[in-house]
Structures are given as structure tokens and as C-alpha cells.
Amino acid sequence: MYDDYLTIALSKGTLLEPTLEVFKKLKLPGEGIDDKSRSMVFTYDKERVKYIMCRPTDVPAYVEQGAADLGIVGKDVIVEQARDVFEMVDLQYGYCRFVVAVPEAIKNIALKDLNYKRAATKFPVIAENFFRSQGLQVEIIKLHGNIELAPLMGLADMIVDLVSTGRTLKENRLVEFIKIMDSTTRLICNRVSYRTKHQQIQPLIENMQKLSTGGSA
Amino acid sequence: MKSRKISRGLRDLLPPELKVRRFMEEKAAALFASYAYEEVMTPTFEYLEVVEMGTGGNIREELFLFMDREGGILSLRPEMTTGIARLAATHLRDAVFPQRLYYLSNSFRYVQPHLAQYREFWQAGIELLGAEGVRADAEVITIAVKALQEMGLDNFKISLNQIAIFNSLLDDSGLNREEKDCIRSLVENKDLVELSRVLESLDIDDELKETIAILPVLHGGIEVLDRLPYVEKNRRALAAVQELREVYETLQLCGVIDHIVVDMGVLRGLDYYTGTVFEGYSPELGYGLLGGGRYDHLLGKFGFPCPATGFALGMDRLALLLKHPALQEAPRYLVGGKDFAAVIAQAEELRKQGFAVEIDVEGKSRQELERKLEGRENCITGGLIYV
């Protein structure tokens, strides 16, 4: 569907508020946006901008397929899905890190001794790639939530998960064993939109870059 | 066996789709022929070593590989240019150059299938062999523009670049192969975040860093070439910039400049490109429509050094955009009757006049045939003739 609106896919949830703050500074419209409302599309005719409200994990798909021109989403989701999109700006907020965490009882284990152990995770791609890059064979068990439960119940020997403060780990008597990568929020762009809507997109990118590196837009 | 499975990423094509496909092929073939290009065909599979002459070793996981009975490793062709380079280096050594060749062919890649990306895909393309220089580049790009126009597409852009600008800058940076490959893929995928991080960590000239960082987002008219600070210091890059300007000017002469934008981020994935490169996009589709460029060293790898340029157009993707192409079909009649000899005579008479005729081979009555015709008025445009 082609129109001259710039369509931006927004992540519902914790990223929404800081995203809207950035948009405000960039003079992008933002009135009435709410991820609890029933509407999922917000259209601003005067500014020729549309927002669509998505689950964070769906944002890359909307952008890759061109249903949205731009998307705001965490690096964690981008890496896990390995979608064919352009990654234009690091917006800095929404920081978290990917870690391998092990039960306190084995916190002094050597990395090589994780070979042929089981890791529970919501991010099988990232987990698999990390262990492979270390030359390790690890069995990945994909779960959809409450990853910390898996080692407690003997389902897995360790977990690969996103951590921001580390409190959840502590509560479940897990310790951060090794950091895989950092993640922050990114602006992603459809490959073709970048070229066909360049005049709308490029200034936006430049302003976001300035803003995120500490300058003013 | 009741299995109706087909392998992932493949598909059946039914008459409505094939009508569009053939329409596109006819348009493409007629256009190519009008520029004096002649059709060739190469084998559907080649030895892996031949395929990798062109693609380099970096797309092996996208190849469909198998072995022949003698133990040779074969690959379904992932693209057409390498096969045509081999063909030219084998059969056209004594030909008068430039040679102009075109193809309408399928190729195969083990990719993640989705809309507009299949594991068997069809391309129409041309190769202009034996001609160096700006005019040859401009001819090929002009034909690319016209091909899209001929098929009924208006809203599209061709992104133009000269790959030697980027390559010469990297060559003189003192970076090792691994670092270069990394930067190349970051620029190509416009991973600006990682690119700026990597550039920061490298010990190279600041102006060069700045130039590399800006390449992926340099996009627009020819004036974007004025924004490359480091290029003045690099003779080969400077020459490449000059050449890009000349291609742009020549495309103005060719009357297709309205569709051209300069985009320094276009590097093309394949290893063999050496000079002018380009890709075509429509705002109505999230994936590229065509791609091509100059590959002056590829034929040399087959022992026949010869400059070359060309492009390939993705027919499957283009077909998605041509919902209602101007198909020209002869009116179709349904002819039936008790006397089969009369039916045949009537049908032959209509066919001679250029109509398409469907004969009732089931010996149905007029009423039955009329009932059969209901709802098929769009198909049997000529109507029923009962003799």
C-alpha cells in the first residue's frame, strides 16, 4: 500500500513513553497516543504521519515488509529476528543487556564446562549464536516467560535472558555469568522506504542522531 | 503417494499468473531486441567452482548443492551473469565486440521464503560485453528504466553508485580484509549504529572516517558528490567520482534522468562488481526490483579478460506490482453442435480469423452449453456459437 504518509511502528509498553518524549522534542505529533486504547493506528493528516501500535517483537516484521516505513524497537528484538532492515539511530534509552546467568551454587564454573549443558531462553537465536561463537554446544530450550524458573525446577542448567537491574536474577538465586551484548532502543527503517521517502526520512534521522548524542534537534 | 507437499519457497504458477509473466517477458524481450540484444540460455546448474568464480565464497549457504555421479559438486545457478560470462569466455572468443546478450531465466537460492522472495525466481536481464566506459553503463541503465516503463510501471527510482569510490577509500585505509568486509556489510545494510561504533574504534584518518560514515546516507541528486571530504586525497576515488558524474550526465542525454538518484549506500552483494552499480525500487514494494552494474574482471577469471556490464530484473517481484497489465487477448468463442464436422469447420474458420476457440467435446445441447457459459462471460468473450 503506497501513500505519502510516513508510517512509524511503535513498540507498546515500556519503550512507548520515552519514545513519545523524543518525538515531542522532534516536533512530531503525539496527541492522544495511548497503548491502552483500542485504536491501533493513529493518523495525523496535517503532518502526514501515521503511527501503528505493535508488540515490540512485531515491529521488525512491519518494517521489513514495508507495512511501516520506520520502527522503534529494542536491539534485542532486532538481533533475535535478524530481519532485513536498516538500523539507523541508537536512541540510547531502554537499556538492558543480554547475559548468561547460572545458579549461585555453580557461579565459579568455567565457560568451557557449559559444554553440552542446557540453556533456557526466550531468545534462542541470540543464545545459539553466542554459544557457537564460543565453540560450545549447548542445548537451547525455548520458553515464553518466567525463564528464571527453569534452573530452579531442573529444566535447564542456565538461562540466557535480558537483564536491566539484575533484581529478578537475585530473587531467583541466579548470578550473571557472562555478558553477551548490550541493547538499547533503535530506529529501524525499511530498505525501500529509505530510498523512496528519503526526503521525509533523512531529516528525521539526522535530528534523532543529534538528539541522542546529546545535542538539540 | 498422496503427498501434495512442495519444497519450501517454490510455487505453482496458474494461468492468470502466467499470462502476466508472459506479457512481461514479451515486453522485455522486444525492448532488449530493439537495442540489438540477442537471447542466450545457459545450463540450469553449473559446477560449484564456476558459480563461485562470480559470487565469491560468501553465499555458499544460499546455494542448492548436489553431486554428480563422478563426484563433482554442482550448484543450481544462483544468478545468470556468471554462467553467461563462462559462456562468452568459451564460445565468443572470436566474436566481434561489444556483444549484447539477454536472458529470461530462472535461478535458485536457498533463502528465507516470503512474499516477493522465492527459492526459485525468474529474471529478465541483459549483459553488454566488451565495452568499457560511461556510454555502455548509460545504455544498460537506460534499458533498465525503459523495461520498467514498458511493463507499465511509472513510480520507481533507480539508485546509482560507483562502487570504486567506496572500494578505493577502503583499499587505502590500511585496514585488513576482515575489517574491510565488516565495514562493507555495515554500509550496505545501513547499520549506522554499529558502523559508527566500529569506525570509532579504528585507527584511521578522521576525514576518512567521516566520509565512510556519511556514505550510507548520501542520497539525492548529483550534488551529493560534493559532500565527500576525503575523496580529494584519493586519486582513484576521485576518478570514480568523476566517472559517476559522467554517467549521470549521459543519462540526462538518454532522457531517463527523472528516475535516477545517486545513492552512495548501494554496494550490491556480489563480489564481482567493479564500477557503476545500480538498483531499482518502487515505493509500492518493500524489496528491490532490479539490480546490476559493471563487472570488468569476471570474464578474466574464465581466461578471457573483457569489460562487461548488465542488470537483472526480478520478474516475480515486478509481477506483484502489475495487477492489471494491458494484456491483449483474442476474443474466445465456445463452439458446439450435433454435427461435429460442422463444429470443426466453424472452429477452424474462427481460428483462421485470429480468434481463440474452445470446442465442446462433450456433445452437449445448446441449453446445457448456455448454462455452462453463465458466469464465464469474461472468459468466453466471443460467446457461444451452436451449429
Automatic annotation (TrEMBL), chain B:
Going by the UniProt record, its keywords in alphabetical order are: Amino-acid biosynthesis, Cytoplasm, Glycosyltransferase, Histidine biosynthesis, Transferase
The record, for Gene3D superfamilies, names: Bira Bifunctional Protein, Domain 2 (3.30.930.10)
Instruction: Give residue ranges for domain Aminoacyl-transfer RNA synthetases class-II family profile.
Output: 1-331
Q: Which Pfam families match?
A: tRNA-synt_His
Subcellular locations according to the entry? Cytoplasm
Gene Ontology biological-process entries:
histidyl-tRNA aminoacylation; L-histidine biosynthetic process
Organism domain of life: Bacteria
Q: In which pathway does it act?
A: Amino-acid biosynthesis; L-histidine biosynthesis; L-histidine from 5-phospho-alpha-D-ribose 1-diphosphate: step 1/9
Query: What CDD domains does the entry give?
Result: HisRS-like_core
Further remarks about this protein from its record: This function is generally fulfilled by the C-terminal part of HisG, which is missing in some bacteria such as this one.
Query: What is the annotated role of this protein in its UniProt record?
Result: Required for the first step of histidine biosynthesis. May allow the feedback regulation of ATP phosphoribosyltransferase activity by histidine.
Name-wise, this protein is ATP phosphoribosyltransferase regulatory subunit
